[in-house]
Give the backbone structure.
Amino acid sequence: MQIPRLHPDTVEQVKQRADIYDVVSEHVVLRKGGKGFVGLCPFHSEKTPSFSVSQAKQMYYCFGCGAGGDAIKFLMELGKHSFSEVVLDLARRYQVSVKTLEPEQRQELQRQLTLREQLYEILAIASQFYQHALRQPLGQIALDYLKSQRRLSDETIGQFGLGYAPASWETLYRYLVEQKRYSVQLVQQAGLIRQRQSGDGYYDYFRDRLIVPICDLQGRVIGFGGRTLTDEQPKYLNSPETELFSKGKTLFALDKAKTAISQLDSAVVVEGYFDAIALHAAGITNVAASLGTALSLEQVRQLLRYSESKQLIINFDADAAGKQASIRAIGEIADLAYRGEVQLKILGLPDGKDADEYLHTYTAEQYRNLLASAPLWLDWQIDQITTGRDLKQSTGFQQVAQELVKLLKKIDNSDTRNYYVSRCAEILSLGDARLVALRAENLLAQIAPHHQRKPTPLNTKKQNSQGKSFPATERSLLEHAEALLLRIYLHYPEYRQAVSNALEERGLQFSLSHHRFLC
Ligand SMILES: [Zn+2]
């Protein structure tokens, strides 16, 4: 194997970022066709297109001349460039920082590459071992659990390679080290065994657990999740971080979901392995599961590269803890969502159910309908802020107003922001249509005082003298007067001190809590 002088991190990042469609479409006119795109092959002369590009697979292939490969291979073949040249070029284009390797590092890399290949091999063998154990008498309890509690068919169990880790301490150790003659060190590096604390000997990492293999995008096993069948804690145990497995960078079942994600142009993320498995078994296959961590930017990028319009639906548990989990789970993607780079929706299932439980009572069709009507993330956030709050009480009103302002402030796109300002204004008006415009103006003033240049549509005097829009009740007059004063306060910093002084001298205070909050 030829070792490039580029650091593998650089190569990996370039592969992650460079989308095959982006790269090829700069050189070939592509149009939608089949599951991907088709065009005239640049590698042989033809009149009807036999050259196809699949975003789901991140590959191109020509049915005419047999040319095929990934984005890097395409550019290498097209321009007769070397691997390093192409990667460097793409790194510049996608703003990936370039790291290179010294000669001694290259030797180390060669060693690592060999190590990775050996680890893939051991993990594949371990996975087969677990699957075999599931079908033995000692695995009966696990098989019963899968079939009765999880209602999984043999087909699904096989498709996901589910298995059982025997209860005794050294079963897998003996199989891999004594029978298959793998080195102890290597088996340990695969995360399959642990050294005893006494330092004397090793024991299996997973014992008496149901085993769920976790695969990379190519479908190779890189780690396992183990669910206890007893009361033992933790309920779910993942492989330790290894050369191949990193929890924060992996999504369970994405290898099986990517084609459906690109076909349906939308990805669903659930919390647990069995939620994902149950949905796949029910025919809803654009689903991957986070591994019990907040969704990282890297995980989301992986998902979104298969969805053209960047649609992501998060379906985490809907109980009280689950809602907090959803908020945390959004974590790093919040920024993407505020910038409009991901069309994020949040699905909460009725009765606090998770997807697996839901499918025990309801049909796949019903779940699909819920997916289709899942609220956009901002609507969901607004719901979270207002639910259970009494807007008629001043403290409730103030809290909600403050939180809504905080939310609105973060929305980058001005059209989106204006839309949600109106929505929030409606909520804060409590059904009194006459208040909506005023509330909207208050919100706008609070979220971006310097952006608001429009002359006021709510000239109190005019409208009240005509007696149309605003009946001159004391309440609304007061509110308008205060709003006007506030507007002066916000837009003309030079008058701020004067306004404060005037209020203080007269012992006055704004009567409305959301006004007091500002001044
Ligand atoms: Zn061709």
Notes: The pocket of zinc ion is lined by residues 41, 43-44, 51, 62, 64-65, 67 (CB under 6 Å).
